[in-house]
Amino acid sequence: MGLSKTEIFTDQQNEISVFAKVFGHPARVAILQHLFKIDTCVCGDLVNEIGLAQPTISQHLKELKHLGLIKGTIEGTRVCYCIDHNNWSKMKQLLLEFLNQDVAISTECC
Amino acid sequence: MGLSKTEIFTDQQNEISVFAKVFGHPARVAILQHLFKIDTCVCGDLVNEIGLAQPTISQHLKELKHLGLIKGTIEGTRVCYCIDHNNWSKMKQLLLEFLNQDVAISTECC
DNA sequence: TTGCTTCATTGCAATATTACGATGAATATG
DNA sequence: CATATTCATCGTAATATTGCAATGAAGCAA
To answer: Which residue of A104, A108, B27, B43 pairs with B80 in a disulfide if CB–CB is 3.0 to 4.6 A?
Structure first.
């Protein structure tokens, strides 16, 4: 039905999947990488940087902002976006725990 | 149009998003966590463990297998699944690089 | 005020994802 | 052989995602 049955999973599992899903599109990966690379706010030139139409970029930014990974500040007619370092760290902690599950593994079977 | 424009992004960005997307569903997160927790092959009881119908589980397993994160071995009428540690490590390296972008950041702006 | 720039929102079309019943393939058991 | 078990695949319905043209809102400049 196109609808995930989130109620049968743990909060942690749902949280991991929500963050992972936002990284599940190359445009959002590219936006975040650009924000980190510039190492400061990005004011306006994201549409030229990524090769998608302005409404599309705006929509991706909205999703990133909704999860708290970036924050936008209005500056005249422009909006400046940058990474929310605090929330990025929290998300990173959650995903690192998931990705590092394999360190506890002892046996090999297959 | 529901179709990602992968051609305008780098191979690395597309790869990151492909792996992230597979973690973008709590059922697949739960399956992987269970495989790690059991620390050996899982033969058959995944449908009982996760609360979804058998065809649905089968479909999620197929996606995980397609990306190489798990491997399945036929054992009689059962199929035993386990983590592909080698590919998991490669995937982890790719995502860690992405998640750890923030360590290089010096300035704060917003 | 008029026009320009920048970004958000709306509306829509195309495609993808999720979930499951029904069915099929393969093996084991009696 | 007949039956049961286990898992994959097919088909389908419901919902989500992606992308963009059109439009709206807000500030700036002349």
So the answer is: B43
Q: How many CB pairs under 8 A join A and B?
A: 150
Q: Contact B108/A85, CB-based, under 8 Å?
A: yes
Number of H helices, E strands in chain A: 5, 3
Band of residue A88 on the pLDDT scale cut at 50, 70, 90: very high
Left if phi > 0, otherwise alpha if psi is -120 to 50, otherwise beta: which for B2? left
State the nearest Cα–Cα gap between B57 and chain A, in angstroms: 12
Calculate ∠ Cα B60-B63-B67, nearest 5°: 145
Give the nearest nucleotide to A56, CA to C1'. Answer: D19
Tell me the CATH architecture of domain B11-96.
Orthogonal Bundle (1.10)
Nearest residue (Cα to C1') for D19?
A: B1
pLDDT tens per residue across span A22-67: 999 999 999 999 999 986 778 778 999 999 999 999 999 999 999 9
A25 touches strand D (CB under 7 A): yes
Q: How far apart are CA B68 and CA B74, in angstroms?
A: 16
pLDDT at residue A66, as a whole number: 97
What are the domain boundaries of chain B? Answer: 11-96
